[in-house]
Amino acid sequence: MPKIESHKRVNDIFLGPLERPALHWLAVHMPPWVNPDILTTIGVIGTLIIALSYWLCRYNYNFLWLASLGFVINWFGDSLDGTLARYRHIERPKYGFYIDHAVDAFTEVIMILSLGISPYVRFDVACIALIGYLLMSNLVFLRTCVVGEFRLSYGRLGPTEARVIVIMANAIVYFTHNPVVQFRFGTFSLFDFIALGIAFLLYYFAFTTTIAQALELARKGE
Fold it and tell me: pTM to 2 decimals?
């Protein structure tokens, strides 16, 4: 198995041409006292803002805007911590990999389940999306161990695009008041359909990539 320190990081996303220069600019202009651990903490704070905002939406739907701000804060901390470490040449490969992705797992669980306790997404739908996320996480870490490639993007979609989709969904739901459709087996809202669409993509990429990687390893006799 490849060493964790030497894994290749791949993040070929649609928004990469915009995100990479922005993160580099932020890293260059970040005050000296800000370090990657502080940025990781800021990302966690963004997650807590998201969770609190979706809960408060039970009482006032204007908190959707605060939830969207939480996603921006989460992106800032979560995306910039590694960039800053690489820019300052202060990488700690094992510690950074462990902390970053352990924290990501907890924050993603909180963010997705907070949607399920909001008035906009059914809790069972949120759980379906969460399972898809956990399947993808498992695949990413398995491929890191087996082939030495830490791939964050599939179909040119990654965490940044997921945040943007949810922020757009927040805005759409705010202005449309989250219309619902009644089926014989239950009632589903617009946000439910968006969450199910994201879940479908997660399951699709998890299944197809797992099969393709298994076939490649079998072909190579590894």
Answer: 0.93
150: left (phi over 0), alpha (psi -120 to 50) or beta: beta
Q: How many other CB atoms are found less than 10 A from the CB of residue 190?
A: 18
Q: Give 138's contacts (C-beta < 8 A, 6+ positions apart).
A: 206
> Tokens 């439910």 sit at which residue?
192
The percentage of residues in the chain with a pLDDT greater than 70, rounded to a whole number, is 97
CA dihedral 56, 60, 64, 67 (to 10 degrees): -20
Query: Under a CB-based contact definition with an 8 Å cutoff, are residues 5 and 93 in contact?
Result: yes
How far apart are alpha carbons 13 and 200 in whole angstroms?
18
Looking at this protein, which amino acid is placed at residue 64? L
- Domains observed in the chain: 4-220 (1.20.120.1760)
In the chain, the amino acid numbered 20 is: R
pLDDT in tens, 136-167: 999 999 998 888 888 889 999 999 999 999 99
Mention every residue, 6+ apart, whose C-beta is less than 8 A from residue 11.
Answer: 151, 152, 153, 158
